[in-house]
């Protein structure tokens, strides 16, 4: 075996014998104050084994979990790391920073412990930041009407004054200055940056010098590369016209607007600058009068395949195994239209809840782009779906008409109208909270056809306005950003709808990084239902029928994507799921689990700390959360607020932990929640509660199972 000698920095004259199997056990950094150690680790190419190495070796023997990758030690890489650290400090304004390393050898395990020792030294401070023309004898001619915008940019760059020089910030200032002029008709702008020494050797002056160059306008716009999509359709998507002032931002936006079309896979929109000599040789007409350039615009398109077949398979604790299949036909009948056929099956198979949500849906969707505006798309979607959920079992046939205004990034506005007819086969709501009737009497009424007055056919007609606003650094796995989703729904026209209500809702998600790998995620949800007209019980109406009719619109809480610690929608008011089974010539009531009663008002929140799982790599994450929520009805017309004998209308909270894993099929998250302040119904078996209600026994004396405080959740998909 070939041995290599390594001369250590300390102790002096010591020599370590290493071989191709030598690895670094741990890397430490001492003396780093201005640059966080995790940032320095990003530039260091010497790699250690990481924490929990033995555990990772053991886990690597399991399927889908990779074994630790060997990282043989390289003396040359270690010496280069010292230079990299010095360069990192120079970029941060520490031009006198010094770095060295100490190495300790464990010969019994053939492992090294490396410590980088850093002396930062004094930083270089910026005593002044100035912005001016390249020619000191002239002044910058700011385009008319852009003075305030220019001053805002100048003030933002001048904030560097008095601070430590950071080369990245200095370069960003130059980029922003050039970009400002480039978006206002000056494609040949240049922004030079220079440092001028000061009397104090630890300070300097930062200067930006701007040369706008000549003014330019867009020329003719041509489209290339399209074979199926008509040129007029593509041209309609671009907000570029001959004679418009040149703008790099407008070219970039045109690319994004083109990619809104499903048939467009990639788009590149450019207005190439000819060489200065060539520009000078252009005729006066091409230069727009001798002083303005006319730059032809070229949009280069790559089209997608016309047909596409795809699908997904997933799992959630509340719905079990689910799958979705899609067939897409792009540019159907021309005009950039897209035809989609989608089938969804949420089977309930392997669900961890007593009453899983089972859903089957088939929908055909036709998407028409550029309706009224190039960023507005219209969707026409007839559908049929069958649901067997905690509220009941029914089949629904309907039609959705949607207008979507797509803004930058994830921002959008939508207006939706849905008309549907529901065929109800079974209701699953038993009124334990009724103030004037006991449970068993009401259940008997149910079995005798009390709910026949609801009808087996219901109609709905609702208009929904919703929006998505915010920005995320990574839509698949966000660590920074905010996303807000408000929604307003109203039944209209009420003449063809079984119910009448306004429904207001708001969900907000926020993400903030905590260091290099950790982050904090937060979520808030609020909602309010305002029944009116036919949905408000009159003096001779049974309010319970109105409550049942509003079940689809009422609010619930709890579940994998909401308040963990509770099963899906079972936080707050709930009643035993009582079903009548035949026994001879009579019907026998049997309770199995709970179903949500819901409420007209709802609020919930979640705080989640996401930390790296030591020794497992970037695809593994540990999480710790605190969730809470409340569902209640504060409306005397429905008589529910005075019937809270089981104290189910208060705020409930849960805490827990979990693990996250990023896989090729999507993110997987498993978590365990613990109810901090459960209600009686959270701890008592539904069969026991039902039996006590029938027999008139006190409910608070029933056996409470602490095991019911725990709730598992498993999900595949995004966390917002």
Mean pLDDT: 85
Give the radius of gyration: 33 Å
The parts where pLDDT drops under 50 for at least 5 residues are 1-5, 7-13, 279-290, 429-453
State the helical fraction: 10-25%
Name the CATH superfamily assignment of the largest domain.
Answer: membrane protein fhac: a member of the omp85/tpsb transporter family
Give the strand content: 35-45%
Shape: globular
**Count of domain modules:** 4
Second rung of CATH, namely the architecture of the largest domain: Beta Barrel
- Tell how many strands the DSSP assignment holds: 29
The CATH first-level class of the largest domain comes to: Mainly Beta
Short recap of the structure:
The chain is an alpha+beta fold and 720 residues long. A hairpin with a 4-residue loop joins strand 4 (98-106) and strand 5.
């Amino acid at each position: 075996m070939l041995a290599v000698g390594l001369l250590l920095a300390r102790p002096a004259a010591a020599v370590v014998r290493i071989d191709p199997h030598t690895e670094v056990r741990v890397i430490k950094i001492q003396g780093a104050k201005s640059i966080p150690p995790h940032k320095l680790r990003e530039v260091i190419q010497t790699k250690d084994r990481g924490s929990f190495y033995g555990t990772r070796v053991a886990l690597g023997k399991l399927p889908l979990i990779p074994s630790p990758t060997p990282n043989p030690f390289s003396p040359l890489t270690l010496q280069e790391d010292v230079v990299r650290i010095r360069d990192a400090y120079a970029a941060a304004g520490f031009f006198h920073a010094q770095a060295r390393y100490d190495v300790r050898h464990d010969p019994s395990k053939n492992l090294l412990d490396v410590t980088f020792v850093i002396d930062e030294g004094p930083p270089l401070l910026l005593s002044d930041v100035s912005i001016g023309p390249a020619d000191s004898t002239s002044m910058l001619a700011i385009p008319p009407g852009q003075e305030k915008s220019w001053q805002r940019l100048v003030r933002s760059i001048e904030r560097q004054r008095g601070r430590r020089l950071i080369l990245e910030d200095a370069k960003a200032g130059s980029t922003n200055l050039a970009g400002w002029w480039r978006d206002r008709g000056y494609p040949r702008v240049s922004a030079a940056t220079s440092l001028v020494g000061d009397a104090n050797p630890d300070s300097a002056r930062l200067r930006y010098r701007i040369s706008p160059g000549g003014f330019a306008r867009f020329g003719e716009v041509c489209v290339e590369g399209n074979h199926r999509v008509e040129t007029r359709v593509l041209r309609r998507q671009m907000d570029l016209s001959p004679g418009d002032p040149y703008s790099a931002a407008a070219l970039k936006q045109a690319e994004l607007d083109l990619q809104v079309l499903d048939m467009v896979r990639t788009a590149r929109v450019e207005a190439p600058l000819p060489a200065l000599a060539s520009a000078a040789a252009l005729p006066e007409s091409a230069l727009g009068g001798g002083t303005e350039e006319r730059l032809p615009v070229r949009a280069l398109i790559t089209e997608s395949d016309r047909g596409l077949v795809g699908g997904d398979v997933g799992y959630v604790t509340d719905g079990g195994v689910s799958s979705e299949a899609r067939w897409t036909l792009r540019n159907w009948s021309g005009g950039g239209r897209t035809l989609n056929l989608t089938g969804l099956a949420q089977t309930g198979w392997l669900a961890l809840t007593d009453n899983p949500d089972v859903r089957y849906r088939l929908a055909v969707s036709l998407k028409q782009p550029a309706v009224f505006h190039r960023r507005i798309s219209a969707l026409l979607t007839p559908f049929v779906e069958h649901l067997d959920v905690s509220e009941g079992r029914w089949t629904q046939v309907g039609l959705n008409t949607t207008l979507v205004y797509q803004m930058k990034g994830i921002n959008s506005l939508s207006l939706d109208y849905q008309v549907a007819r529901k065929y109800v086969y079974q209701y699953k709501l038993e009124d334990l909270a009724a103030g004037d009737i006991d449970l068993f009497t009401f259940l008997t009424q149910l079995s005798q056809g009390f709910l026949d007055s609801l009808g087996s056919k219901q109609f709905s007609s609702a208009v929904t306005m919703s929006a998505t606003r915010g920005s995320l650094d990574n839509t698949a796995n966000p660590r920074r950003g905010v996303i807000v989703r408000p929604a307003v729904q109203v039944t209209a026209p009420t003449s063809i709808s079984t119910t009448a209500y306004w429904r207001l809702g708001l969900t907000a998600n926020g993400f903030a990084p905590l260091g290099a790998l950790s982050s904090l995620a937060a979520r808030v949800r609020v909602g309010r239902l305002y029944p009116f007209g036919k949905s408000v019980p009159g003096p001779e109406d049974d309010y319970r029928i109105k409550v049942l009719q509003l079940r689809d619109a009422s609010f619930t809480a709890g579940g994998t994507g909401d308040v963990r610690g509770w099963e899906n929608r079972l936080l707050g008011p709930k009643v035993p799921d009582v079903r009548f089974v035949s026994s001879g010539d009579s019907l026998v009531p049997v309770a199995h689990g709970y179903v949500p009663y819901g409420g007209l008002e709802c609020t919930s929140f979640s705080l989640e700390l996401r930390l790296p799982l030591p020794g497992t790599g970037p695809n593994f994450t540990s999480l710790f959360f605190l969730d809470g929520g409340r569902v209640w009805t504060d409306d005397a017309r429905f008589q529910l607020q005075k019937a809270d004998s089981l104290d189910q209308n208060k705020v409930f909270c849960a805490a827990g932990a979990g693990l996250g894993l990023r896989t090729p099929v999507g993110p997987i998250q498993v978590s365990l929640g613990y109810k901090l302040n459960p209600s009686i119904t959270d701890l008592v078996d539904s069969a026991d509660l039902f039996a006590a209600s029938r027999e008139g026994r006190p409910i608070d004396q029933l056996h409470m199972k602490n095991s019911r405080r725990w709730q598992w959740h498993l999900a595949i998909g995004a966390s917002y």
